[in-house]
Design a protein that fits this description.
Helix 11 runs antiparallel to helix 17. The protein has 3 domains: about 60 residues; about 100 residues, no CATH class; about 250 residues, Endonuclease III, domain 1. Helices cover about 55% and strands about 0% of the residues. It is mostly helical. The radius of gyration is 36 Å and the shape is globular. The chain has 24 helices and no strands. The site of iron/sulfur cluster has 14 residues, from loops. It catalyses: 2'-deoxyribonucleotide-(2'-deoxyribose 5'-phosphate)-2'-deoxyribonucleotide-DNA = a 3'-end 2'-deoxyribonucleotide-(2,3-dehydro-2,3-deoxyribose 5'-phosphate)-DNA + a 5'-end 5'-phospho-2'-deoxyribonucleoside-DNA + H(+). GO terms for molecular function: 4 iron, 4 sulfur cluster binding; class I DNA-(apurinic or apyrimidinic site) endonuclease activity; DNA binding; DNA N-glycosylase activity; metal ion binding. This is Endonuclease III. Its EC number is 4.2.99.18.
Length: about 450
């Protein structure tokens, strides 16, 4: 209707100006009067039409303004998408939450912001805004969320059709989160030089780093160099290594690699992967531990924890260590590889356990597609924490200063049952006895 008004007015004016003028003056005057009133009516119609058009444009503009909310949600990463549907519907509820949002609450927190700042709905759900929220929530001090906080964790859903770019972003966000939770992450084998590290790593197969750390002081005190160990009496070495299990096979390996170091490498541990993997008992995992921690050369350590966690996080579906190493390596710059390995292994040992992951106490829960695989009740989950997160001693008898500064407790030496008992109970009681099965001191590493 709005478009017809102006056209109709023009037509009416033209008709008034042609027919009546040829008839008579009165008729013409009458005709002019009629034409004038028609013109006035047409002008009125045009004005109304103009107003209607303006009103329509305004309505359209209003409609356009409401679109960005949907568009912004579309931009969110798959993990962030996990809860938004619920979160958007519950923005009002989130905004009225009394307790501050933590990692577990990342999704509701993101939704709570737009409720307070309705004009910036787009910002509230953008990826950039999500990062600081996650970062804040995973600080070391907040590693164990409060009950209310953990109870609000939105179960993350497995990312579907996640692009490589989105996967890289999510993987790096998890690593940054872990770096804040474990700023003191380090190799958990005690060593003073590359020779001690390669021997300790070989001995760590099928046992805990703690047990190795409790055993190697006697070994290195008696055989401090590759030449000494290569020339040792095997039975004496076996006796020292007995606590680590598989001690005969391990004796063969460490004496064999000592002979190879003595005969082929001048008594020095080589700093190249291709040389290290030629040593008896040394595979890629051991080689990367040595390269990364004794030579400062980037390496990814794919141990049992690493394999389990990267699969839970959907970083890769590969099952073979070498393929996992390649797949995960492609998500991070080389310079991150060594510390990434420590972060993941620390998390696997302390919170994301094989059988009972402590999801309710996990600071990276909002980024984890496997949230809910373990205990989600915050109080029960907190009881599952191991090592320093659970208030227990670590695995190293001589941990780095950063670990001690963060409240970490050194592991007790072999045979210190009182101290080991404290490790098991966390009570610090010297008369507590040997560690209970499944306790941190007896864990799977
Ligand atoms: S503890 Fe649970 S939420 Fe945390 S990384 Fe492991 S599976 Fe995911």
């Amino acid at each position: 209707m709005g478009e017809q008004g102006p056209g109709g007015a023009k037509k009416t004016t033209k008709a008034a100006g042609s027919g009546p003028v040829r008839s008579s003056a009165g008729a013409a005057g009458k005709a002019v009067g009629v034409a004038a009133s028609e013109m006035a009516a047409a002008a009125k119609k045009a004005a109304v039409a103009k107003k209607a058009a303006a009103a329509k444009r305004t309505a359209k503009a209003g409609a356009r303004k409401s679109v960005p909310v949907k568009a912004a949600v579309k931009k969110a990463s798959p993990v962030e998408k996990a809860a938004p549907a619920k979160g958007a519907a519950s923005a009002k509820r989130s905004a009225s939450a009394v307790k501050p949002a933590s990692a577990g609450r990342a999704v509701p927190a993101e939704k709570a912001v737009p409720a307070k700042k309705s004009a910036s709905a787009k910002q509230a759900v953008s990826t950039k805004k999500a990062v600081p929220a996650a970062k804040k929530s995973v600080s070391a001090q907040q590693a164990v969320p409060s009950e209310a906080t953990a109870a609000r964790v939105a179960p993350a859903q497995p990312p579907r059709n996640e692009s490589h770019t989105a996967l890289v972003r999510r993987a790096r966000r998890i690593n940054r989160g872990l770096a804040e939770v474990y700023p003191y992450a380090h190799p958990e084998l005690d060593f003073e030089n590359p020779f001690q590290l390669v021997v300790a790593t070989v001995l760590s197969a099928q046992t805990t780093d703690l047990r190795v750390n409790q055993t190697t002081p006697a070994l290195f005190a008696k055989y401090p160099t590759p030449e000494d160990l290569a020339a040792a009496n095997p039975e004496e070495v076996e006796e020292i290594l007995r606590p680590t299990g598989f001690f005969r096979a391990k004796t063969k390996s460490v004496m064999g690699l000592s002979k190879a170091l003595r005969d082929d490498f001048g008594g020095e541990v080589p700093g190249r992967l291709e040389d290290l993997v030629k040593l008896p008992g040394v595979g890629r995992k051991t080689a990367f531990v040595v390269l990364g921690n004794a030579f400062g050369r980037p390496g990814i350590t794919v141990d049992t924890h690493f394999q389990r966690l990267v699969r839970r996080w959907k970083w890769t579906d590969e099952k073979e260590p070498e393929k996992i190493e390649a797949a995960v390596g492609a998500l991070f710059p080389k310079s991150d590889w060594t510390m990434l390995s420590h972060h993941v292994i620390f998390h696997g040992r302390r919170i994301c356990h094989a059988r009972k992951p402590a999801c309710g106490a996990c600071p990276i829960a909002p980024l984890c597609p496997a949230y809910g695989e373990g205990e989600t009740d915050p109080e029960k989950a907190t009881k599952l924490l191991k090592y320093e997160k659970g208030g227990f001693p670590g695995q190293r008898l001589n941990p780095p200063q950063a670990y001690l500064d963060a409240g970490g407790i050194p592991a007790p030496p072999l045979g210190a049952t009182g101290a080991t008992g404290a490790a098991a109970t966390g009570a610090g009681s010297p008369a507590a006895g040997p560690p209970a099965p499944g306790s941190p001191a007896q864990g799977t590493g």
